[in-house]
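Appendix B, example 12.
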Amino acid sequence: MDNKNEIKHNHRFLDEAGDTAFYGKGKTSILGSAGVSNCFILGMVKFKQPLPDIRAAVSELQNKIAADPYFDVVSVRKKKQATGYYFHATDDLPEVRKIFFDYIKTIDCSFEAVVGRKTVERYETKHKGKEQYFYADLLSHLLKNKLHKEDRMVLHIAERGKSTKNQNLELALEKSKERLAVSTNRKNLQEREDWWNIEYVSRKDIKTNVVFNVTQPLQEPLLNIADYFCWAVQNVFEKGETRFYNFLQDKISLVVDLYDAEKYENWKNYYGPKNPLTAENKISPLLH
């Protein structure tokens, strides 16, 4: 039987922010339109405290919000009636966000994210015009440097239609193994290895057994925390708004702006404690 107080370093919790919308009626591009995101973000949290304790604390906070007459507004009532209340940064009231951000600040955890800028050309060529391939590409980059560090890794993933079907998750896993095993010149990558502590290994060294646990945020409270981290990063890229990112910055170890080709040289599209995101990372909307 598992020890309740055991810290499970091999568990990760994944959620996303933004949308994967590219087309409207008649397959007309809607990128740059109001309400359509300029990027899609996939993020992952690792907790360094016993998971049951954090789950219990999040559930207690959710119940307090749901029962508090101050938060008796239409959006909260609808969620309570439809599914039961859970934290979701996009929908939550500003006062609720403040409560949950303050709680996240107290947790010993780390967060990584991959940001995928949206262009029709890349979507049609690299991702074959399919949302699930776009998702798999981001997931493969998020996983690639973790597959040789644990014998077993459990990924708790927020459900997202075809993107999180087992076949697509296995596709992402295979892509991540291929990327990890690519032959590299250690001498040329020394600066990056020192910076990000990335190790490069051959495919034969990849022995991690990966378990996918696709679930809903209501059933897994720890996904709510991943959601808030993703939302904080999304606000930087969509609005140039950094205050939420800055508030959690000490827990954000890495953000990769995956398709920002202009900054590929010297890994400038990798952001972390020594190279934080700023308002200048806002993505300019595509012009029609």
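The first strand starts at residue 11 and ends at 18. The chain has one domain: 11-281.
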